[in-house]
Design goal:
With 332 residues, this protein is of the alpha/beta class. The protein contains twelve helices and eleven strands. It has a single domain (3-11, 54-326), classed as Alpha-Beta Barrel (TIM Barrel). Helix 3 (86-106) runs parallel beside helix 4.
Length: 332
């Protein structure tokens, strides 16, 4: 069985939010030809997408072709809208969550779902989390930061408490990349900023004591944890030599949290993937493809299938780690 925890889905059409709310910055879909559309932010082109972005039957056919048994669906990070007015974002989040829940309801054997929340207002976010937890969604996708808050912000802790209380998995995806004003060429926000954002999120959760205070919280980080795994030595060393600057909110070393969170397998390199399994354990690395976007794995699960692992290791990465993160019983 192969379970892909990192896939994105869009509604085929969006309401005219700019007209409804009286300000812009929202995504719309320009279906300019059959089976393809332009994602537009106001009048600015953002991304070309195909029918596999919104049509479950196309997704299922492609999953069958690649041997993927189940996808975990989440929204596209550009739709987080943490910058918008919170009540407006709540309306959008409800629309997106109802769409994902409907797809899961219609195809329960093929899809699980993650919701999105207006995290700029934690009280509204918790209310929406509670609402869609009753719709069959398994968890929530959040950004690597929320405007000026990193994930250790005290304002966000009640939200993480609610995730733990409701047994909801948390998937952290980079967005609104840091220092993007210095990375205007070479697609650097996606190549450099995204890995840094994932490490920012994970360091914030560790050093801020979120994982320590909520040991039952199940968190997965996109893109193999970004740059975090490959700078783990530096992070641990910094904790040891400058505890006065690093260990100010949590006295426990970052290495003690290895194996207490999940990462996906999306690193595009067998040496890097082997390192993730060695560092975190096979039961904490789950297949993630970033389907259906080009920076993802073009053949979901291909890299994992190619690894020279024993049967049990491969089963953990192909499905066991994902099911455990989702809160679904795993057959040992």
């Amino acid at each position: 069985m192969i379970v892909d925890i990192h896939t994105h889905i869009l509604p085929e059409k969006f309401p005219a939010y700019a007209q409804r709310f009286g300000y812009g910055g929202f995504v719309s879909m320009d279906h300019h030809c059959a089976g393809c559309a332009r994602m537009m932010v106001d009048n600015t082109f953002f991304r070309e997408v195909e029918a596999n972005s919104w049509d479950p039957s196309v997704r299922i056919a492609q999953c069958d072709h690649y041997g993927v048994h189940k996808q975990v669906l989440s929204t596209v990070p550009v739709l987080f809208y943490y910058w918008a007015k919170a009540k407006d974002n709540l309306e959008i989040a409800r629309f997106l969550n109802d769409h994902i829940a409907d797809v899961v309801r219609r195809y329960p054997a093929r899809f699980e779902g993650l919701g999105t929340v207006p995290l700029q207002d934690p009280e509204l976010a918790i209310a929406e989390l509670e609402r869609f937890s009753s719709l069959g969604l398994r968890g929530v996708e959040i950004g690597s930061h929320v405007n000026d808050w990193n994930l250790d912000a005290p304002e966000l802790f009640p939200f993480f408490e609610a995730c733990a209380r409701l047994n909801m998995a948390v998937f952290v995806h980079p967005w609104d990349m840091m220092a993007k004003e210095k990375m205007k060429k070479y697609w650097l926000p996606w190549l450099v900023g995204m890995p840094a954002e994932s490490s920012l999120a994970l360091c914030s959760l560790i050093f801020g004591g979120v994982l320590e205070r909520l040991p039952s919280l199940r968190v997965a980080i996109a893109h193999g944890g970004g740059s975090f795994p490959f700078t783990m030595g530096r992070i641990q060393h910094g904790f040891e030599v400058r505890p006065d600057l690093v260990a100010v909110d949590n006295p426990y070393p970052p290495k003690s949290y290895l194996g207490k969170f999940w990462v996906d397998s999306l690193v595009h390199d067998p040496v890097a993937l082997q390192y993730l399994v060695d560092l975190f354990g096979a039961n904490r690395v789950a297949i993630g493809s970033d389907y259906p976007f080009p920076l993802g794995e073009l053949e979901p699960g291909k890299l994992v299938a190619s690894m020279p692992w024993d049967v049990q290791t491969k089963k953990w990465v192909q499905s066991g780690a994902a099911l455990e993160w989702l809160g679904i019983p795993v057959n040992p």
